[in-house]
């Protein structure tokens, strides 16, 4: 028997973090107290009123059966209300909202819904790896849009070759951005809509950090731009906003025909999100939003401690106005993000993510996550300061 994987699987890039994981375990075995600033997963618990709603809903036998594919009507209505009040975007809950089992699921299934073998999709780099890998798994070609510091980590749309733009079927975008923590304003989204119209490209905007903003900044929805609903959809998620990454609940909103394409794939692969989780999601979206401000206060304090600590260690780092990441240029004397990341792990016991793990244009940076107690962040800064 030979177990030959499909070529779409063998074409996926190698798992670059395996070596870091190995080094990390090795350090732990040596008794080193490792501080893991690599993970982008909220350490704070889900607010208790949301947990309570799940517990109640889990007891109700009507929630034990298969859910509807597009999600509960009440959940979709809660999403529409939430988008209106928080993002100032009006949505029809019947046709313009699709419940997802986490937004990652919807992102990956979108590629299958729209890409034929040999098609191409415009993919930012550095980026959340799912855009590129979902494109590859759809037997299609990811075309890199570099995100460079001198363009504030936004793709230069004018630089996209017109032949490439003409054949590309999808464009993935993500602001506030993981891993660079960059933000986009409404004018940038306007230029994206113009580009999409001109070249007949579907825009998939991934917005899971829409509520994780600081210092008075509000992250706009892509759909707030006139015409955006004709060209695209937006993914959002309860994962980061309400500390619910493990629950697997998110949604896509926007153009109903695009959403129908995604739904068509989902119908044949999954059977929707557990209704009790959707009921808890409604509690999150409709309940008091104080929990978000409380979260933000925690992240803001961590951000300030970490930025100041890294700066006094001699690293140059921007203070981000969104997300729970810092995108830090590697200092002189290091030739790669992996080398610097390994150095921090081996000599300071601090795990960071090398930028190259997010794509070739992530080289020269490391990503530091703020999903860690502030005392541990202070400890990490002290160790890095002593080391550098
Ligand atoms: C965390 C994250 C997601 C995934 O969210 P889920 O809803 O938990 O699947 C999607 N996109 C980006 C950029 C993320 O950082």
Plain-language structure description:
With 388 residues, the chain is an alpha/beta fold. The protein has two domains: 7-45 and 290-387, Alpha-Beta Complex (Aspartate Aminotransferase, domain 1), CATH 3.90.1150.10; 48-286, Type I PLP-dependent aspartate aminotransferase-like (Major domain) (Aspartate Aminotransferase, domain 2). The chain has 15 helices and twelve strands. The protein has helices spanning 7-10, 18-29, 48-58, 73-87, 103-114, 130-137, 162-167, 186-199, 228-231, 238-241, 256-269, 275-286, 290-312, 337-348, 374-387, and strands at residues 35-36, 97-100, 120-125, 141-146, 168-173, 202-206, 232-237, 250-254, 325-329, 350-351, 353-354, 365-369. The strands form three sheets. A seven-stranded mixed β-sheet has the order 2-8-7-6-5-3-4, with helices on both faces. The N and C termini lie far apart (53 Å).
Please identify the structural class as seen in this structure: alpha/beta
Terminal Cα span? 53 Å
State the strand order across the main sheet. 2-8-7-6-5-3-4
Helix content: 40-55%
In one word, what is the shape?
Answer: globular
What's the number of helices? 15
